[in-house]
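Record type: ASSEMBLY
Status: queued
Input:
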Amino acid sequence: MSKFVLTATDPCSRARAGILSTDHGEVHTPIFMPVGTVGSVKGVYHRDLKEDIGAEIILGNTYHLYLRPGLGILREAGGLHRFENWDRPILTDSGGFQVFSLAPIRKITPEGCHFASHIDGSKHLFTPENNVETQRIIGADIVMALDECCPGDADYRYAEKSLALTQDWLNRYVAAFDTTEPLYGYSQTMFPIIQGCVYPELRKRAVDHAMTLDNPNRGGYAIGGLAVGEPAEKMYEMLDLTCPLLPSGKPRYLMGVGTPENILEAIALGVDMFDCVMPTRNGRNGMLFTWNGIMNMRNRKWADDFSPIDPDGSSFVDRTYSKAYLRHLFVSGEMFAAMIASEHNLSFYLDLVREAGKHIEQGDFVSWKELMVKKLMTRL
Amino acid sequence: MSKFVLTATDPCSRARAGILSTDHGEVHTPIFMPVGTVGSVKGVYHRDLKEDIGAEIILGNTYHLYLRPGLGILREAGGLHRFENWDRPILTDSGGFQVFSLAPIRKITPEGCHFASHIDGSKHLFTPENNVETQRIIGADIVMALDECCPGDADYRYAEKSLALTQDWLNRYVAAFDTTEPLYGYSQTMFPIIQGCVYPELRKRAVDHAMTLDNPNRGGYAIGGLAVGEPAEKMYEMLDLTCPLLPSGKPRYLMGVGTPENILEAIALGVDMFDCVMPTRNGRNGMLFTWNGIMNMRNRKWADDFSPIDPDGSSFVDRTYSKAYLRHLFVSGEMFAAMIASEHNLSFYLDLVREAGKHIEQGDFVSWKELMVKKLMTRL
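Status: finished
Output:
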């Protein structure tokens, strides 16, 4: 069973700081969770995730892990923690989102989500019930309900129908979760996912329904179906509406978000947890996030800039390597470039949420955030 | 000026152990030098090269560095050490070998080596004189003469003509090197390259000629044009012939070699220094070298082997990750697989030469080597 304790709330916004306790250790919120898709945060050693980046929890993707290495291997290994040798908390999604974005063939029925593997075309079915079983075998500390992720531009009729399906699946997921046990001697908690697209009425309906299922096994609540094509203002509007409806004593996780600016704005609206591939994916493409803005490392302007990658950065790569060197590695197509950029960006994202937490505790989060969002998205 | 001191010689072979001193520190021979092609040992942090792998000297490729980042940037950076932030010794080749293997257009004339860049087709000329200047700007502790690398299956007439050109270039290289100064406040030494293909008479001729140019600026001698298509037995025959002709008080560097077995056999024949892309390149393709033999990590047999990658390995990756996990990363196409395999293989190669050095000092090198070569190339 996870526990969540609020340690500070901001007087001028809904921002909160807290501690989420799991059997694999504590997570200080607000927190960013690096994405370890198939059991590897791309290009980053677990040692460095802990010691350099200070990651307190990482993500695993159920869709990917289910297909490779597969449940047989994961069970034999004793779960994902032991398989990848990570002794801090892990969160897994349900795999629903990847099915929609990756599987070449997919069909939603009331029963569940039928799909063909993007690897070999083999056919599979995720139901709420077997998804609980799958996430028991993977063994994350926090598991997500199976949902349908509705596109950001869906019309009301589609969104309403989609939400009804998600609600039905949540009922079944919760029933299966609450009557099964974790497999490896430590506890697991589950987060329902609040859907409802960009429609206030549907978001409210989703929360109301989820609340009927609230019990100590619900370790927190995820907000899904945002940052999936709708304008950022719509996302903020939905968060502004949804967060106050959720219980204050449980953490709120905004799935798949986002830019540094998105994260600070969402923290102000009451979100506690984030994950996104942006720091690693954009890093591999040469984009670095810093306190002063965004750098495209392929830009010619860095070619003879021998200053440290990020004088304000806390990662060892920031002090060890120069902008000119990193630019050279990108231009030369060296995998080392992707490693350095991923390490830097994840370190920056963790610094960002840690710093946000400090300002929440100091009571000056909003003024700090206003200053920051202007700088963070500057193109350097 | 580098210095070389022999610390032990094996009673039953020509194997030697020694210490090569440079302004960036000592190198204990026999030594393996990881290849840092464009200023990056692919997939490996400099921190880990030092602290985990124990690399004492790394290689840079003049051809690659000359094209990217180019001499302007390298000079402005204060040389390659500062550019890539590596404070231990560096050795650079002349670039001749890469011209032959990579450049789409190349033409050898008495003047030098004309070539088109494999990156943008731009036209360039390496002469012995400008190659000295180039390697002064890169600033390695040890630089190589410009030579023509003759194919392993060349006929005698071609090999003889090629050697004559290499000798002429060596005369000019030495004249330029001995009348110019290093640029960055630390000394540089140069190694002539002994060519002569697989022809004993030509190898002897090459040594005789190089000896006429011997002086304290010659920090050692390289043996080139081996492991370029000829049978391994021919390579050993040439080493058996060449090493005794070279001065015992200077290190001997066998360029571009090789497998663990090749390295041990060459040490027995009197070679002190090695470099090869095999540990990193083969590592990226899933091949791991261990004391018990070679593992192809893509093999299905590792899928549920949760034992450490290499229980006898000294790298942190060997103890941190399992064979099953590493196999999963390779099968899933994760860059993390290449990182782990490169780290392991380089660590193994450095362990191999360190262990060879210990046995030379103990006086039981030959019996140890005989045991080892049988195991090292076993397919696990």
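Annotation: Chain A has a mean pLDDT of 97.
Annotation: Residues 148 and 174 of chain A are 16 Å apart (CA to CA).
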